[in-house]
Amino acid sequence: MALQPIKYSRRRDLPLKQIMALYRANGWSAADKPRQLKRGLRNSDELVTAWDGRRLVGLGNAITDGSLVVYYPHLLVHPEYQARGIGRRILEQLLLKYAEVHQQILVAEPQAARFYRRLGFKRAGKALALEIFQGHEHLRKTKAKRKAVRPGVPS
Ligand SMILES: CC(C)(COP(=O)(O)OP(=O)(O)OC[C@H]1O[C@@H](n2cnc3c(N)ncnc32)[C@H](O)[C@@H]1OP(=O)(O)O)[C@@H](O)C(=O)NCCC(=O)NCCS
Prior knowledge:
Elements: E1 7-9, H1 16-25, H2 34-43, E2 46-52, E3 55-64, E4 69-71, E5 75-77, H3 86-97, E6 103-105, H4 113-118, H5 137-149
Parallel strand pairs: 4-6
Antiparallel strand pairs: 1-2, 2-3, 3-4, 3-5
The structure holds coenzyme A (COA).
The site of coenzyme A has 18 residues, from β5, α3 and α4.
C-alpha cells in the first residue's frame, strides 16, 4: 500500500489528545501539564505541524522577541515516523521564517545534536545551556552521566 504524503500546517487548534499522544510517545515531561502545553503551543510565535492524514506526527515551535532572538523550544516527531525527513522539513520551515534573526537558539538533546548540526546549528562556543526545569528528562541524563564517570561508587 502506498504511503500518503505527509502534510505540513501552521494551524493552531491542535486537538489535545493528539498533542498528548505525540509527547507521550517521545516520553517528554511536558505531557504531564496538558493545559499548559496546549496553551504554550498555541501562544508560540510559530508552530509547524506534520500530519499523516488526520494524525499529528510531528511538530516544532518558535518563540521570539520579534526582533533579535528566536528560540526553538520543541521539535519532535512520533517514533513511528522518525528518519523520514519530517523533522528536517519542520525545522527548515522555521529556519526560513527566521532567517534574518541575529540569534537562533535551541537546547539539543545529545542524540539530536548531529541532526541539528546538519541543519546549520553549531555549538555556542564555550557557552553553557543553563535552566531551571521542572521536568525530569535532563536530570535523569545528568545522574546517569555522573554514575558513568564514577563506576566504583555504590548507588
Ligand atoms: C530529532 C528528530 C526531531 C529528527 O527528526 P526526524 O524526522 O527523525 O529526522 P529527519 O528524518 O528529518 O532527518 C534529517 C537528517 O538528520 C539525520 N538525523 C536524524 N536524526 C538523527 C540523529 N539522531 N543522529 C544523526 N543524524 C540524524 C538524518 O539522517 C537526516 O539526514 P539527511 O537529510 O542528510 O538524510 C526526531 O528524531 C525526534 O523527534 N527525536 C526525539 C525527540 C528529540 O530528540 N527531539 C529533539 C529535541 S532537542
